Write a sequence for this structure.
DNA sequence: CCGCATCCGATTGGATACTG
DNA sequence: CAGTATCCAATCGGATGCGG
């Protein structure tokens, strides 16, 4: 067996070179995924969007303690990442909704896994 | 069909009451999972630990840009959450290693999923 | 109805120097 | 070797007030 730059355990855990970073790097898949759910309230906003399109005031209703500023920031963040989009209906009165893009739907398995892992952590005592 | 407090989509996405929070809450599984991977360099330290036990200087070698301060913080954080443990061998010279606990091993599927989702996000164009 | 602008206190993490 | 301690700049997020 010849020398290999990539060891077996390395391949299993980080299949591509992008995962073997020596420092935080936006090109690392793990960083990219975390970027999408980063910040307080972000996963809550995503959860709402996973339930379906939502108007601004619907967020304010289901997440009462979320301020205008942070909500605006989160929607801008998700929009900038191409995970959600702002849709303005052409009727009257004009209605604005935010909805997940196909890209945003890619977060569903991650959210499920976060939920599953978190449940495991919460149910198994730390010590 | 009678009225239900919990709708079907709700059950699928957030199986238990803990997932239907109206604000950020440590008791929410998603928050609990994110707490474990929170902070710059954290997933990199976890990745190293998923490869096996590591000494302090091994971290400094494989993650050269990681400062003493943050490394210490991350190891303390993971230890406090019961995800890693500090093991001091009784031989001479004394050797110190950090290794994942059984609880910490629970993060492996999450790391894999973060990697998978991130790869999907990086390979599908935002627009 | 759907936000944006500003202020400000708290948290974060990098740089640097020091210790058992 | 295996960390601590201190300082500081940047980021984050809550409160409040304004605007199309």
């Amino acid at each position: 067996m010849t020398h290999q730059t990539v060891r077996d355990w390395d391949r299993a855990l980080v299949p591509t070179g992008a995962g073997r970073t020596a420092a935080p790097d936006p090109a690392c898949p793990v960083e990219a995924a975390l970027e999408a759910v980063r910040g307080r309230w972000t996963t809550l906003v995503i959860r709402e969007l996973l339930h379906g399109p939502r108007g601004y005031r619907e967020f304010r209703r289901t997440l009462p303690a979320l301020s205008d500023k942070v909500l605006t920031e989160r929607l801008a963040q998700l929009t900038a990442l191409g995970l959600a989009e702002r849709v303005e209906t052409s009727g009257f009165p004009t209605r604005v909704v935010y909805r997940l893009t196909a890209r945003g739907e890619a977060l569903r398995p991650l959210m499920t896994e976060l939920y599953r892992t978190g449940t495991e952590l919460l149910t198994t005592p730390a010590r």
About this structure: Chain A has one domain: 25-122. Confidence is low (pLDDT under 50) at residues 1-5 of chain A. The longest strand of chain A covers residues 84-88. Chain A touches chain B through 59 residues (CB under 8 Å).
